[in-house]
Amino acid sequence: MPKRFHLAWFTNFTAGNWSETFSHGGSPWDGKFFVEFAQAMERACFDYMILEDTLMVSEAWGGTAEMSLSQALQVPKHDPVPLAAMIAAATSRLGIVATMSTLAWPPFMLARVSTTIDHIAGGRFGWNIVTSGEDAAAQNFGLDKLPPRERRYAMADEYMDLVYQLFDSWEPGAVVMDHERGIYGDWCKVHPIHFEGVLQVPRPPQYRAIAAAAADFCAGRRLAARPRLCRQARRFDHRDSQSSRRHEAVPRRCARACGQVRAQSR
Q1: Exposure of 15 in the CB half-sphere (CA atoms within 13 A)
Q2: pLDDT value at residue 90
Q3: What is the pTM of this model?
Q4: Which of 29, 31, 54, 127 is the most exposed place for a label (fewest CB within 10 A)?
């Protein structure tokens, strides 16, 4: 029997190749191009699509934003979360994973928006966990620079605990919709978590919205090994592209990283 495999697409709400054929041309920003794109993915039996995001305009080239802005390199970049809601409403089987940074989103807001879109999607929404990797992003949120990577992922681990507690704050059966008694919800089955209060929305159709994390180093693998994570074990070294012999080693390293994630998740 043929072995099944999974297909995913990684994209973002940007101008992309704005001057080429396969693009929405950099305008308008109504999201329709990406909705039609997602519908095509669904017809092609893709499992899910990830909407990437960053929170800054890069000044990596020459210390200014000139190259990024003049060549539309990852800018303009719109928020993937509203787009995820549009795609969710226009599809029926495709998983939609939006990137949300622990730097930018308070746990309560992330749990709330994830649960809302998961209801819109009928249990097909996920969030791609990132901690952001640029000091310029940190400066957009009142920080001088990012904490070290290992500390960011330790913070993300605690962050996920809070988000999961918020998901779990509504017990199964909390929504009763008893028309005879005029009672919508059983308040005894909705619990504060004594950190950020009570989530305002019923638990997601999936119980907890699926989360995704890149597992390209030790802290990332520990995060990816948490229950219900979509484990994207990603091991890539740019030097591997310099020879076919090295390039052939990439799948072996990826398999090794996958094995480490699975072992830690047990």
Answers
A1: 15
A2: 97
A3: 0.78
A4: 29
β-pair type (48-52, 95-101) = parallel
Q: What is the pLDDT of residue 88?
A: 96
| Cα–Cα distance for residue pair 229/71, rounded to 1 Å | 35
The CATH code for residues 8-232 is 3.20.20.30
CB 36 within 8 Å of CB 76: no
Alpha-carbon distance of 138 to 135, in angstroms, equals: 5
> How many Cα atoms sit within 13 Å of 122 on the Cβ side?
8
Distances (CA, A) of 205 to 121, 208, 209: 9, 8, 8
Q: Is the peptide bond before 204 cis (omega within 30 degrees of 0)?
A: no
Give domain limits for the chain: 8-232
Task: Report the side by side order of strands in the sheet with 229-232.
Answer: 8-12, 48-52, 95-101, 125-130, 210-214, 229-232
pLDDT at residue 2, as a whole number: 80
* Sequence-separated (6 or more) residues with CB below 8 Å from residue 6: 47
Q: Does residue 141 surpass a pLDDT of 60?
A: yes
Decide if 95 contacts 88 (C-beta within 8 A).
Answer: no
